[in-house]
Amino acid sequence: MNLGGPRPPFPPPPGAGFGGAPPAPPSGGMRPPFPGAGMPPPPGGMPPPPGGMPAPPFPPGPGSVGGARPPTDQMRSMSLSGVPPPPGGMPPPPGPLNHAGSFPGPMPPPGAGIRPPPGPGGLPPGMPPPPPSGGTPIGMPQQVGPPSTNSGMLSGIPPPPPRMSGSGGGSILANGMPGRPGGFPGPPPPPGMGMPPPPPGMGGPPHPGGPPGPPGMMGPPPMMQGGPPPPGMAPPGPPPPPGAHHPHHQPMGAPGQPGGITSAGSQNRIDPSQIPRPSAAPTETLTFETRVAGQHVAPPPAASRFAVRDRGSCGPRYMRASLNQVPFSSDLLNNSQMPFVSVIAPLALPDPADEPLQVVDLGELGPVRCARCKAYMNPFMRFMSSGRTFVCNFCGCSNQTPDAYFCHLGPDGRRRDADERPELCRGSVEYAATPEYMVRPPMPPVYFFAIDVSYAAVSSGMLASACEAIKACLDRLPGDERTLIGFLTFDSTLHFYNLNSRLSAPQMMVVAELDDPFVPLPDDLLVNLSESRAVIETLLTQLPTTFAASQTVESATGPALQAAFLVMQHIGGKLLLFQAAVPSSGVGKTKNRDNLASYGTDREGAIRSPEDAFFKRFAAECSRVQMTVDIFAFSLSYMDLASWAAIPRYTCGDVYHYPGFSGARDGPKLAAEVEHNLLRPTAWEAVMRIRCSKGLRISSFHGHFFNRSTDLLALPTCDPDKAFAVQIAHEENMVQGPVAYVQCALLYTNSQGERRIRVHTMSVPVVNELGDLYRAADAAASAALLAKLAVERSLGSRLDETRAQLQQKVAAALKEFRLLNASAASRLPSKLLFPDTLRHLPLWALGAIKCAALRGGAKDVNADERIAVGHELMAAPVEALCRAVYPDLYPLHDTSSDWGIEASDGTLMLPPTQPLSMAYMDERGAYLLDTGRVFVLWCGRALDRAWSVDVFGCDIAALNPQDLASVKPEPPREGSRVSARVCNVLAALRAGRALQPQCFVVRQGSPLEVHCAQYFVEDRGAASTSYSEFMMGLHKGVLSK
After folding, report:
1. Mind listing the pLDDT tens digit for each residue in 530-559?
2. Which of 128, 504, 805, 983 pairs with 351 at a CA distance of 20 to 30 A?
3. Which positions ≥6 away from 796 have C-beta within 8 Å?
């Protein structure tokens, strides 16, 4: 029935202020075999992007706030001197190349497979000496030994001459043709065999109206085809021992250690085994002190395990800078061609071994702040005049010390109570806010669930799974007696529920008006959880049966969101949308914008942007009333997630994507992710401001937020899974003083109803030498910014331009490093020099180019999946982003070490990682691939039967391909020690993650194996280059003029 009620107010917001970027194009095609798998590569492929392509500068994108992008006028590009590149980039090796970059050939004996290239030979006469930059000649035939920790060079190389003044430590890469990525040979299928369909539960038909899947393939899955090497290439050498850690792995980001790359017997090749790669985190926990003897200390690698000891500057979990030393002038920063960014995760969870965050409660006085710039008290403010005044370290203003805060100074000039007050000795503290920081009483935790009950939701099992997941969390929701909760269901109409505690069962009220939705009751739609607990549980139990016979296929998603807004607008909170059908009724209904003809044209960016102004307008209104929207999308068909994702983008929300959801298969994953979303620490009605010391300014922000002013971010909610990249520029020509400062202040309400201010202060020394900047670079933070910028740009531009721009930014930084080492470059004209601190940046950049957010075109990645992955990258902290672009690969077949066994202190050691190339895979092995979104347990065709029976309960080699979908490593098998260790590793990797990966078993040679190819970043793909070829493209860009 239709009931009268207030109309939803949606005045158009101001044009400026959105802190996100547009979304992505629809793309049909074959359903992925498992969530996050993407689409199989198409036949043929595109040539690798030319290394010397000039890239246009980034325009001010819709996820940024003001400010210009890093300068690009020095990114000049020409062909490599002495070796003109062929048109279209580096050609593939000769021979018939399939669409995964492998060569067909006869099957070798069992256990053979493709192996890494052989070791290098001796030094030829006339070899030029190594460079004077602490690096190593790479790519030249030479004797190779273990790296020397004293000289920073490979043994067998003459010691370098004295180091050049001002140059950063570096390494050198030779110019030459890259080698072929490896792969396992396999028996050819019968003639005419096409792409086999995925097994039941792991695959499905193509999207309705979408492009067809890949045409039939002759031979085994393309990634696994083998054969003899092409002419002029050395034969494969012996494989690494099963489970062995590669000898050339180096600790990620460790400064001063060169990443050596040596050629393998030919000056026309690069030895892939010598290319720098990130290694697994060390098993032991390091202790990191943020300052030692009053001096700044560069943080440990992002992926390492470390316990932070806060000595006045905040830890890298909260703020990680791309440059651990600040250039004193804008010219110096521009010359380096490196980004100056701080990646901030204000609510990051500390390690159990970290010192706990201290709460400072100064009573009615409140936080002590600078009167001019409003910076918060921190360890770097200097007290003068016997403690009666203090000088702000941000603006230099002299302030009177409040009487209630006064303390005498000691002989060293410090306050006598400095070590007793957390705000005077620690870089991260949390203040108890006073009433002046509140515009209303602190809000309680509010959760409102809008659930699709159409035929698609019922038949897929989504409705039952969602209700069970929510019901399991009711007793653990934060907020104690203050928590509010409400529900709305919808199909072609809207269903409200009266949850008054005096009722024995909930009352449903139906509103059929979609053009102008209204609220049928003024109260009792949003109720106190503890008071109405029994009625709420009854509702969640009855919903699946109430709509079990539903045949309604329409879904009024837009009107449902408007109705939920009317219920929540007086208080705010979290709105969780569970959407199974394609939105088809009312405002925001999906239009088929998946136009393949638009790809590669100027219209491509438009299909990744919201076409209807409703989405941004609704997001602005939600931000105004402190509402965050999280979307759980379950549709297999195209639902234009590009438009819908704009709402969580501007409200600091999340997007969860479950294409082809099956309640039996995906229900546990949904339950785990709903639990994490509801129970994680949450900051409500938050705002965040970033301050820089004098001479610096914030030029742009990147992440999920709504921008209220040039330096204030509106975050209706915030949580530990959210990070924000902040680009810093020079406000004046030079920075005065030896140290610069950055401070982040997050004002929020916690779930207990306390208004808090979390303050992180970071100190960074100022330098005036370009070489010092390269030595102080953080490759992981730089890669995080480049990936976020690329995703942001992709939402409004062509994908090929975005990928080329990303590659050119990396080449520009390496080019400036080469110019810095001009003496070495003149003696080694065909060698690529790169700083040790950035040795992993090219690999992470290549991984970003190959991730689902940026890879290929319309037929390579499902359009909605592309948007979901891009949304995740924009919000990801540094460690999670690096794992997303370069997944971890763990060998599990070697049980000789202690991985997977819990130690007495509760820690668990993980297996060592391997390079992401099929050349390092052994057909006798089992490998766990952790992409951050999905686990793939790859089993070789010659895997030991005893291991397979211990873990799976059967011999996986004897199963038919269609039976593999039912093989699971979890739960652990009773009495099997190996099974328990494997399950322990899976549980340890899942712990604390926003996305809970499912584990899928893939056998070598099975039809599903082709879907794993996209994750092997170092191998050549259908439309992407190998790691070696990518390094060659960078080399050509560096040598361009």
Report:
1. 999 999 999 999 999 999 999 999 999 999
2. 983
3. 21, 22, 59, 61, 62, 605, 608, 609
